[in-house]
Structure formats: structure tokens, C-alpha cells
Amino acid sequence: MINKLVANIQKTNAPIVVGLDPMMKFIPKHITDKAFAEKGETLEGAAEAIWQYNKGIVDAVYDLIPAVKPQIAMYEQFGIPGMVAFKKTVDYCKEKGLVVIGDIKRGDIGSTSAAYAVGHLGKVQVGSKSYYGFDEDFATVNPYLGSDGVNPFIDVCKEEKKGIFVLVKTSNPSSGEFQDKVTDGRPLYEIVGEQVNKWAESCMGDSYSYVGAVVGATYPEMGKVLRDIMPKSYILVPGYGAQGGKGKDLVHFFNKDGLGAIVNSSRGIIAAYQADAYKERFAPENYADASRQAVIDMQMDIAQALGN
Predict the structure, then answer these.
(1) What is the pLDDT of residues 7-21, one digit of tens each?
(2) What is the pTM of this model?
(3) Helix, strand, or coil here: 80?
(4) Is the N or the C terminus of the chain less surrounded, counting Cβ atoms within 10 Å?
(5) Annotated catalytic, 34?
(6) What is the three-class DSSP state of 181?
């Protein structure tokens, strides 16, 4: 799947992943009104609104981007109906030819980690048959429990030709409380990056590994160091836009071939119609058109920063 991700990025010339992280406050009233009229102000009504909102955005941007990243917590909060909306979103995006990165941040040990890996990336055995569960193409993985938590995902990746992005240096302000702690004279995130590189070398696609890393756009200097430590890992870069990251912050996340990184924007795209830069041009009914314009603007910002 890393080969497809690279091919999609080259085809669109847009190293961009849209974070499908729906919140009820982002969803225009005309969508929630219709969903609630059909299913009531219920979990089912909320899930229907989420699904229709996502579908509108995907329809508007799928030809511009290589991938999407639904954040599972935004769906889990609505219980089983929310998880149905998550699965419908994953399937629809794949029908549109997009690579789907399941932002699940799982990390456990032994059979539990294996179950997470099977549920999101692989097949579960049911009697004499096997079935895909959520069937994303990539998943985000928390390495805090060590190799015991990551190896089951790598095993499934090898079997299914899918991939993972391991949390190395995250974009949130308090990430340094643990990730920056110095151990043996080096920050912990560098040590994690070296381990990611070892995992990556054991699981290669044509030019990049099925094992990637998450490194926040809000820490560009650290990104430069980690790019050198993990030369064959694709870097998923959150923190662009709403969290403060700019195109100029992204240069060092990419390799000399112009590849090696994919930049996430979530609410900066999916809720663009509410932002000052777009709300005068786009009414709530045209929220998806605002999302499309936000993708185009982001693509231009990154291209300028990279000198393309």
C-alpha cells in the first residue's frame, strides 16, 4: 500500500491527507436538520449527519488528494452508530481511489495488539472463513509499550501489504513532557526514530517502507533530525494549519526526491467554511466547496515552500 500512496501523491502532486475528524459543531445545519428529521436527535441521527457531511467533503476533494485520515475517536463517541459511519466512510473513500489512514493510535501487547492489527488492517478468522473488519490501508500506532505492541502490526502489514505510522514526535504542545526527555544523552524521540528505522528496513516497498512515522509540523527542527534518522520511512505530518504549522515549516520533512512526507490538515479543510479566510465566500450550504478551495490553497502553500 505504500507504493499506492506514493503513486497517488505523484499523480496529484499533493502530499496532503485530509483528516476526516467530524464534530457536530462543524456540520452545517441543513445536514443535521435532515438527519434529525429522519432519525431523531439520537446517536443514529448524529451518525447519519456525520456520514453525509463526510460524503460531501470526499466528493468535493477526492480528485485533488491522495489520502484521507479518519480519526476514530470522533466516531466512537457516538457508539455503535458512529462506528458504522466510520466504516461507511472508510469504504466510500476506498471506492474513490483514496488511501485510507486509520488514525486509531493503538498500542498494546501480545494477543491484544494482534487483535487491533487484525481488526483494522487484516482479516479475522470466523470458522472456515476470514473477513476484513474496518479494512483501512494504514493505521497509526503508539510505540510506548515497545516491540511487543508494534510487531503484531508489522506482521499483518507484511501479510496484507498495508502499513503503519508510528508516533515519534507528536504535534501537541505537551508532547515534550515525555518525548523530549533525555536518555543516554539523547532525546527519547530520536531513540524511537532509530527503532522505527529498524522496523522500516524489515518491511520495504519499492522505494519506501510500509513502516512510517508521525512527526508534527509544529517541530520543524526536530523533523529535520528525524528525516535523516528514518530515510526510508514516510512521515505523516500533523499540525498544519489550525495547530500553527505552515508550508515553510515542512521543507525538512521531505527527501531530496520530493517525496517522503504527507501533510495532514483536519479542521482547516473540513471546517474551512467557518474560517475567516473562507466564510465570506462560502455559505454553510457550500461547505464542501470551501473544503475544496482549502485543499487547493494548501497544495499551493506546500508547493511554494518546496520550490515546485
Answers:
(1) 999 999 999 999 999
(2) 0.95
(3) helix
(4) C
(5) no
(6) coil
